[in-house]
Amino acid sequence: MTDTPVASTGGGSTTAPGAPVLDVDPGIKTASSPKIAPWEERFTSYDVEAFEVPRGREEQWRFTPLRRLNGLHDGAAADGEVAVTVRSGFGDSASDDLGGVRVEHVGRDDARIGEGGIPADRVAAQAWSAFPTATVVTVDQPRSDDEPLTVQVEGPGFGKTAYAHLQLRLEHQAEAVVVVDHRGSGTVAANLELVVGDGAKLLVVEVHDWADDAVFVGAQHLSVGRDATIRHTSVTLGGDLVRLSPTVNYRAPGGDAELDGLYFADGGQHLEQRLLVDHTATHCRSRVMYKGALQGAEGDKAAHTVWVGDVLIRKEAEGTDSYELNRNLLLTDNARADSVPNLEIETGEIAGAGHASATGRFDDEQLFYLMARGIPEAQARRLVVRGFFGEVIAKVRVPALRDRLEAAIEAELEAVGV
Amino acid sequence: MSTLEIRDLHVEVETESGPKEILRGVDLTVNSNETHAIMGPNGSGKSTLAYSIAGHPKYTVTRGEVLLDGENVLEMEVDERARAGLFLAMQYPVEVPGVSMSNFLRSAATAVRGEAPKVRHWVKEVKSAMTDLEIDPAFAERSVNEGFSGGEKKRHEVLQLSLLKPKFAVLDETDSGLDVDALRVVSKGVNDYKAQSDVGVLLITHYTRILRYIAPDRVHVFVNGRVAESGGPELAEELEANGYERFTSAAAEKEGQPA
To answer: Which of A75, A108, A155, B228 has its CB surrounded by the most CB atoms within 10 Å?
Structure first.
């Protein structure tokens, strides 16, 4: 694929179905472009009624097909619940013995709820107003990488709507690897709070392996303590519509956040990611790397992905080190990738800041090179796509999950026969 | 004993002002155990010949044949040509991010040999081939050609040659961009493979420098999309002394004549 990091002004890039597009147009915000709203200037509220019902023209919602939200944005009542189970280990080796990990089910009056962040859009506020109980998972000591925690979230079932709330808390100096594994059918809106204590380290992988009918809208509130580390990887494979909005908040200096993403959209799927990394404290680091592949079969509805990456470096955030990247690989014609990186810098005293965005078709030269060594075309394509996602998957610390993701990508490729 | 036979090959590429003919009737026969040097000025169509034999989609064959032991290679897909025993060492090897060299080599060897090489033998084989070409073993885990220097890329092309063991190898300007040490190592790699196989080599180059390391049996001067003159190694010496002028001006005269 064409790899053209470019820094220019402008409002992002769009590739329309059918158009041979290898374009890049990220925007470093200039005085005339709309500013990224810092989180305390963004409208936030726990109360759903404090937000207007989105109509689709709002900046926050302009890419989202509201009709397909099954009313999440417009007061849809819950008629189901998600099932949340927490286990130690991942896959076949998982067990119910959680060691020292605490799992609690609490109401919204619990003082800890909301520590990670406050809803900034109507669907997140709706989820907040309507969840029946919140699950709080607390880790207060370092756990080994070999013992990941798995939080399984099962949808409410076909035709049902549910609201959910989950908080992962890492106390001072605690460490954990957590997989939040979403599956099943139905319509779900949820908030996920990731509260990382001072000096703590959380590696969390959020997998969206929903059934074809599922609609999921989630707000991830990443709250990073002093010298704390968070690695957040989101993997979006299934679902009719999945929209994720991770927001990173640094509570104190020295925080380190890496956000990685992998998404694979088939015909008819709408997969949307909207990130905000808000550098409010000194000497914090952020890295964003999202990679997506799109394949809409001929005659099917187009595959559509949206990636919006807002990075704001405030005046007081001296010593910030930040970089964000989004790459999209169009495997077929019938696909559309919107990519909008925004970087706004209010201080000159930074360690580094940059961004890159590129959307391209399959690189025929790569294909030729591999085939010229005898490798059949289908296998050559798989190698290239696997390679494209390789650096995201390599960072997933759970081997059994890596295997599952690799297998899922193979299956996606088989499905459309590329 | 195998034969690679190029007959009356005409090839064009698509340009902004329509199709342009680059090869204008190439005739050339290479047998096993022979090394043919194809020499010519820039723009004479040497690389087009290399890529057309390998089947690059950018080039359209409008006339002629390329026969490998009597079978028309032009009817085969790119990967089929490689499996039939053709190899192209590229002038500009392509970077494939995220695909490790070791994975790539094993995939290619599996495809070309028709079965996956046994792991223990394979590891040894790759290691020894890399040692011969003075390649640091760490390259095995790096992405294919990504961030490699020019010399490292060419060494890896020859590494592939020695592992895929083709019947015919087309080396497209393998000497370009190499310093003397790298040229020596790369040439030794080609000569080693020649010594242990019956490979026929088509060595495409602009300069005579590489011919001091890899001795040609035949030299062809390539001008204006076809072979202008063929001879023994002494032809290369003449080119070394006098350059291509005699051939280019002759070709220009010929072009100027009424048909």
So the answer is: A155
Instruction: Report pLDDT for A92.
Output: 87
Q: Residues of B at the A interface (Cβ-Cβ below 8 Å)?
A: 54-57, 77-79, 81-83, 88, 90, 93-99, 103-104, 107-108, 111-112, 143-144, 160, 164
Find out whether B172 and B116 touch, Cβ atoms under 8 Å: no
- Domain co-membership, A299 together with A222: yes
For strands A134-139 and A175-183, give the pairing. Answer: unpaired
Helix (DSSP H) and strand (DSSP E) numbers for chain A: 4, 20
Query: Contact A366/B96, CB-based, under 8 Å?
Result: yes
Q: Do A272 and A286 reside in the same domain of the chain?
A: yes
What average pLDDT does the segment B202-229 reach? 95
Alpha-carbon span A138 to A166, nearest angstrom: 11
Contacts of A125 (CB under 8 A, 6+ apart): A45, A46, A47, A48, A50, A51, A119
Mean pLDDT of all residues in B173-182: 92
**Structure letter (DSSP) for residue B127:** H
Q: Looking at the complex, does the CB of residue A299 fall below 8 Å from at least one CB of chain B?
A: no
DSSP type of residue A53: P
| pLDDT tens, position by position, A4-27 | 333 333 344 544 443 333 333 333
Distance spanning both ends of chain B, measured CA to CA: 40
Mean pLDDT of A340-369: 93
Asked if residue A3 is part of any domain, the answer here is no
Q: With respect to residue A216, please indicate whether it lies within any of the assigned structural domains.
A: yes
- Report the number of distinct structural domains present in chain B: 1
Beta strands in chain B (DSSP E): 3-15, 18-31, 35-39, 59-68, 71-72, 86-89, 96-100, 143-144, 168-172, 200-205, 218-223, 226-231
Mean local confidence (pLDDT), B185-207: 96
Average pLDDT over residues B178-196: 96
Rounded to a whole number, what is the distance in Å from the CA of A391 to chain B's nearest CA?
A: 7
How many CB pairs below 8 Å do chains A and B form together? 80
Q: Are residues A111 and A161 in the same domain?
A: yes
Q: What is the mean pLDDT of residues A98-105?
A: 94
Answer whether residue A172 is part of any domain.
yes
Stretch (H or E) spanning A265: strand A256-266
Closest-CA distance of chain A to residue B232, Å: 30
Average pLDDT, chain B: 94
A405: nearest Cα among A146, A90, A168: A90
Residue A30 has pLDDT above 90, yes or no: no
Dihedrals φ, ψ of B119, to 5°? Answer: -55, -45
Q: Are residues A233 and A375 in the same domain?
A: no
CA distance B62 to B221: 23
CA nearest neighbour of A248 among A263, A233, A271, A230: A230
Q: Which domain holds residue A223?
A: 13-362
CATH number where B49 lies:
3.40.50.300
Q: How many domains does chain A have?
A: 2
Contact A368/B78, CB-based, under 8 Å? yes
| Domain containing residue B103 | 3-256
Gap from A307 CA to chain B (nearest CA, Å): 22
Q: Are the beta carbons of A72 and A161 closer than 8 angstroms?
A: yes
